[in-house]
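User: Just a sanity check before I run the rest of the batch. Below are the structure tokens for the first item. I only need the designed sequence back.
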């Protein structure tokens, strides 16, 4: 940061209290810094040290600074002890908005107007609350009134994009966000929404550049850093991905998503994939997936297996001899047919059910539990090492265990937004390590 900017920023920091205008000036000065969030954290630490139990004007300063660092809950705590004026109410509204408490935000905005707040500026925020609360018709009417006041400014265009997006017109929304970004490249909300649109539509390089722009102006929202970390991780830039996540944790050490994703990133650096082992498992699974209809069986044996829903060799190694014989019309002759069929493939009845058993064709240590083992299938997904993108897709599909994952087809996974061939290959690899595979379409 240039010395003149530092001096200007220090002069604002030393004031007894802050206003909306002071907040804007702090943003302006910080935007000339290469590391605005770190600079702001330093400023906040000094203010908190000077006022450990802030009240009045000091509480307002600290509340605004916490808002700028996305510490919204703690910002509201400080603002609750601040002087009750238009600035306090305005920033309480912004914090409530970020916490998705839109009705509370709207109420605080109206109180800010009553206390002399900038009606035009606050009207933009109120129109946004209308849209976020689902009143799109009301938001459109508010937009029409705002256009007469502020023209097609960045604020107006960003709000127009939001209304279009919430109405389901994503392409038209992206156009509005693009125009807002062109009108004001420092407009945080428009830049983030445009970056997110590019991210969803596969323009990853453009998304990275836009997310990077979001980082240059507080408040730097965790979602921008999280999404940027995903893109960096996909590109194999693990150090940069980790830096994004550590930046979130520096502000909010309890951010569960950032902690989980950082663990994934660190694991990705040292992850080793045993290709020979996976190949052997795949070969074994190919044998187990062989349909029993591929073999010459008597009509009675074939019908019994069909009624018992036994369709593959894998089903047979997971059923015991007594279970087969207990079925009506299944006798010793049919049993011998089945045993001979399995023996031809070096398999036997109940093999997968025997504790510590393994298939003769492979060394014992090479295999995880059998593919139908309920213990393996019950393994939670959050215990398995997946990339951030793959994990996000599985979470969106509400897949909790390995068994649930194995019950899905490739087509079902690929239909999930942002789940591509790379993620599919990763899922196959993880399942193979546990002797599982994705379900084949029926």
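Assistant: Here's the designed sequence for the first item:
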């Amino acid at each position: 940061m240039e010395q003149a900017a530092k001096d200007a920023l220090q002069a604002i920091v030393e004031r007894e209290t802050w206003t909306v205008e002071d907040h804007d000036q702090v943003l302006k000065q910080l935007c000339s810094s290469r590391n605005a969030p770190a600079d702001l954290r330093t400023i906040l630490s000094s203010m908190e040290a000077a006022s450990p139990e802030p009240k009045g004007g000091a509480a307002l300063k600290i509340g605004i600074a916490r808002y700028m660092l996305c510490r919204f809950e703690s910002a509201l705590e400080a603002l609750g002890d601040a002087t009750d004026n238009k600035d306090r109410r305005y920033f309480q509204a912004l914090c409530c908005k970020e916490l998705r408490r839109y009705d509370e935000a709207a109420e605080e905005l109206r109180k800010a107007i009553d206390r002399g707040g900038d009606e035009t500026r606050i009207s933009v925020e109120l129109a946004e609350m209308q849209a976020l609360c689902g009143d799109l018709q009301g938001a459109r009417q508010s937009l029409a009134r705002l256009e007469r006041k502020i023209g097609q400014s960045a604020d107006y265009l960003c709000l127009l994009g939001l209304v279009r997006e919430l109405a389901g017109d994503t392409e038209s929304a992206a156009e509005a966000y693009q125009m807002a970004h062109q009108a004001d490249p420092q407009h945080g909300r428009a830049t983030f929404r445009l970056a997110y649109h590019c991210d969803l539509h596969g323009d990853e390089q453009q998304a990275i550049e836009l997310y990077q722009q979001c980082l240059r102006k507080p408040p730097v929202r965790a979602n921008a850093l999280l999404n940027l970390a995903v893109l960096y991780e996909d590109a194999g830039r693990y150090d940069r991905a980790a830096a994004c996540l550590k930046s979130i944790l520096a502000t909010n050490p309890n951010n569960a998503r950032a902690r989980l994703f950082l663990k994934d990133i660190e694991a990705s650096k040292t992850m080793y994939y045993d290709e020979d082992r996976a190949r052997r498992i795949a070969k074994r699974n190919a044998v187990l997936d062989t349909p029993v209809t591929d073999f010459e069986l008597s009509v009675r044996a074939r019908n019994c297996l069909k009624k018992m829903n036994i369709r593959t060799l894998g089903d047979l190694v997971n059923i015991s001899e007594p279970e087969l014989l207990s079925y009506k019309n299944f006798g010793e002759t049919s049993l011998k047919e089945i045993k001979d069929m399995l023996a031809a493939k070096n398999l036997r009845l109940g093999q997968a059910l025997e504790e510590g058993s393994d298939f003769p064709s492979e060394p014992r240590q090479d295999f995880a539990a059998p593919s139908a083992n309920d213990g393996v299938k019950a393994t939670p997904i959050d215990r398995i090492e997946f990339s951030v993108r793959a994990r996000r897709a599985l979470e969106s599909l509400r897949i909790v265990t390995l068994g649930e994952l194995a019950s899905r087809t490739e087509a079902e996974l690929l239909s999930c937004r942002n789940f591509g061939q790379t993620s599919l290959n990763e899922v196959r690899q993880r399942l193979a390590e546990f002797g599982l595979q994705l379900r084949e379409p029926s």
